[in-house]
Write a structure and sequence with these properties.
Length: 58
């Protein structure tokens, strides 16, 4: 079972930082994203749920 949690919002409001804090995954993969600090492509992170009942997709 997968649970989906989606983030939407204006540029530079901390969505990528929140996903990183929750999952440990840096969803900014492109060198341009790293250089500018602004996401260009969509990024996903998968987090196993503690109860073993699937994963959470951020």
């Amino acid at each position: 079972m997968a649970n989906d949690h989606r983030h939407g919002g204006h540029i530079d409001h901390g969505k990528t930082t929140l996903v990183h804090a929750l999952s440990g995954v840096d969803t900014d993969r492109l060198k341009e994203e790293k250089a500018s600090g602004i996401s260009i492509e969509l990024g996903y992170a998968y987090v196993p749920l503690k109860d073993g009942e699937g994963t959470l997709r951020l």
